[in-house]
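Hi there. Long-time user, first ticket. I'm pasting a complex I've been working with (about 828 residues overall). I'd like to know whether the download I got is complete or cut off, because the file seemed smaller than I expected. Thanks.
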Amino acid sequence: MPASEEVVIDAPLVESALESLAQYGAYGATGVWRTAYSPEWQEAQDAVARLCEEAGMAVRRDAVGNVWGRLAGREDGPVIASGSHIDSQTPGGRFDGVLGVVGAVLAARALRERYGRPTRTIEVCSLCEEEASRFPSASFWGSRAITGRITPEDVEKVLDFQGVSIGDAMRDAGLDPTLISSAHRNDIDAWIELHIEQGPRLEDARLPVGIVSAISGIRHYIVDLAGRSDHAGARPMEGRLDAVAGAAEMVTALINVALELGPPAVTTVGRVAVVPNLASAVAEKVTFTLDSRHPDPKTQESMHAQQETTMREIAEKRGLGISWSIPLALEPCVCDPDLVKILEHAASKQEIPFMTMHSGAVHDTQNMARIARVAMIFVRSKDGRSHTPEEFTSTADAVAGIRVLASAMYAMAY
Amino acid sequence: MPASEEVVIDAPLVESALESLAQYGAYGATGVWRTAYSPEWQEAQDAVARLCEEAGMAVRRDAVGNVWGRLAGREDGPVIASGSHIDSQTPGGRFDGVLGVVGAVLAARALRERYGRPTRTIEVCSLCEEEASRFPSASFWGSRAITGRITPEDVEKVLDFQGVSIGDAMRDAGLDPTLISSAHRNDIDAWIELHIEQGPRLEDARLPVGIVSAISGIRHYIVDLAGRSDHAGARPMEGRLDAVAGAAEMVTALINVALELGPPAVTTVGRVAVVPNLASAVAEKVTFTLDSRHPDPKTQESMHAQQETTMREIAEKRGLGISWSIPLALEPCVCDPDLVKILEHAASKQEIPFMTMHSGAVHDTQNMARIARVAMIFVRSKDGRSHTPEEFTSTADAVAGIRVLASAMYAMAY
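Hi, the file is complete. Here it is re-exported in full:
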């Protein structure tokens, strides 16, 4: 591709592909409710397969139901791959995940139509169960299969909110869970995921595109605080072991750790449960979640350490029992510097305004980094919203992101 | 009763009456689960009626099912009354409420057996639905009927947790809700309620008995905080409208208002609900309860005002929406000074160690104060516990409280 030339992406085609996928599991006027292995999810994966075929790609489904489209290269060797997921929050919007699948297919299509068969093989992938909105402990199920991180026990142990095992859900969708290990790939050189931003930074900066150089590490803590239930009137303040009062002090202190570190540190307490949860009873127990993220590995470590110390000190001071579990812990994922440069160059030469940024949200790309060089492209989200039917990305911004992806694919595969 | 003489209360009789009432709705080894108008509650009221008959009293049930026992005096005129309730928390213990019913009956019995017919009429009462453990908006149903504070609409509007109206529950128990107004009394001179303390102050002071000179006023607020839900990773800290963070700051500040006022001010946030209540989402909404109490009318007013200001200021500073309702508001109830003196004298002359104190818990007595002079007697609770199967008061302490009650009844009615 000469430096003066641009990749042309057909905007109406982008729009119609997004529209058509939004019909499977449509929720209200603009929302989607499409959980992994549900009938609407299966239909949507079939629609992705058709989209790949229309793009001139060979299509296959792997053992967990990831849909792969392949544009075979003239030469053997590791693959240049791109994709995202089509399962949604409950409800979610029509862009989160889907844009990265549609973008990968249409980028490959545009390249094939204009430049024919690539030198190196290009693959696109529609991954399964990123959101964990049906199976709470199965986030990244599709990329876990690709990276060989599912054990045979997971198949029966991972349950949805109704108690259905993910193995049964797979069988209902015509898949054979005993074959999961066959989904493991070791032949991917580079993985690029296009995704909506899910935050407001691009909008704040008035930029359509972000090149992601790192994805925040994350820890989820589930914290149990044990106090003593007492009568809210008859027990004087002195001597109370009030778990809500303790949790309140902790929430403020934990958030302060992130505020004092400054951006891009973030800390959120999003879930709180109180026992006995009565207006007239001092709380005996509070369980709350702590979500803490940073893209720099060292800072992340020290942030977690500070927050753990803070919680222990407050519990100690108040005579409250404290314990926690850490159901989710991901290291920060530093993207491949060469891939980041290729993406920056792809944007620059097409005069697409962009900034290089980190991702505060987690993505399948963090798993793919175990087997491939990775990077991501973000496009601007209206009001920084996601995980809601209101999420919105303009077609112009979507096209800008796909052009960066296509141009980078061209640079690597042609 | 000559000054040197003591009222003798039969300790084994107290113990066996408490034991026998604990069988109706028994829950585990020491608990009780006995909600208003349930079959077990009806059986327990029948048992109270038998206890009154055995004490030589005339028994009647009023329109809401309060059981009244009457020891008619030689002279006409307003009545000296005592009682409490036998409905329980779910589960509760065997002392909360029941002790005041058993104590009133056995005090009257001891007086009748020793001194015969009183000059003035003595009545005892087993009130219905104090705890609101079945009908959340029907606390003090029995004393509300006696004080004429039930409207005909309440009968169908007040629902239990299963949606059964209190009118239907009354009809199932053989009562006619159209007759409620007949339960209204205007002929009670003095009302004394014996009750377990429900807090640790008597135990801390190593005293068996407390004479209650005031009952705290109480307000329950239900506070709604409105923020904005955001992605816990992708939304930077700056610009968040985090309802949990706001609630945490408020809880600490609200509790500080009570701490700074000092005893006997108490403030409790006992119930918290978060929307959407997800680990990875900044909270859009938090609803929490605020329970705030003080026995001094002026201080109570200024405490509520300070707390309201605090909440508004924090919401304003954080850009959160705030609104609240006040489903429960009771003025402090200052007990009748003459009755308090009679009780203090009754304790002193029997050499029963006591202190004069306020009640932080609410009681039917607050309603009875609308039609009669009132006071209360507390007895020591082990570890200050109540509203739990573990609540415990020794027979010796129970007897000490009943002796104070009987001696005061003697002073007023003989």
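A couple of notes from our side: The domain at 217-330 of chain B is CATH 3.30.70.360 (Alpha-Beta Plaits). Chain B touches chain A through 64 residues (CB under 8 Å).
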